[in-house]
Amino acid sequence: MRKREIEELKNKLNLLKSNAINSIKDSNDTINTLNSISTSEEADISSFKSIAYVDENILKNNNMYLEDINRAIKKIENNQYGKCEMCNKNIDIRRLRAKPYARFCITCREIYEKTKSKNKRTMNVL
After folding, report:
1. Which long-range contacts (C-beta less than 8 Å, at least 24 apart) are formed by 26-29?
2. What's the pTM value of the predicted model, to 2 decimals?
3. Domains in the chain, ordered, with CATH?
4. Distance of CA 126 to the CA centre of its chain
């Protein structure tokens, strides 16, 4: 991968990181606001709890997303960026442009997803 492409992707990752951090802050603010509201109306309490639950899930997903972004930035710093974590081959630049924090090439991603899905089904059976 050329230096220009890596810089382009690093800039994109930093923008994604900034957006993720802002989203995490917004979710935290919403959760804190909902937790501080006192009401005696059962419908309101239920509604607030539902919104807080959704925001907590968004927060969890954004934290995982931020971890992926930080991992990719660290790989750039360590000159390991763009390599598949399973097969160690180069990840296609088109994939990295679409998902700059991608950990796997397309082939290995499919294997990873199938394994993950199979493990999830096995856990549900147990």
Report:
1. 27/55, 27/56, 27/58, 27/59, 27/62, 28/59
2. 0.78
3. 3-125 (1.20.120.910)
4. 28
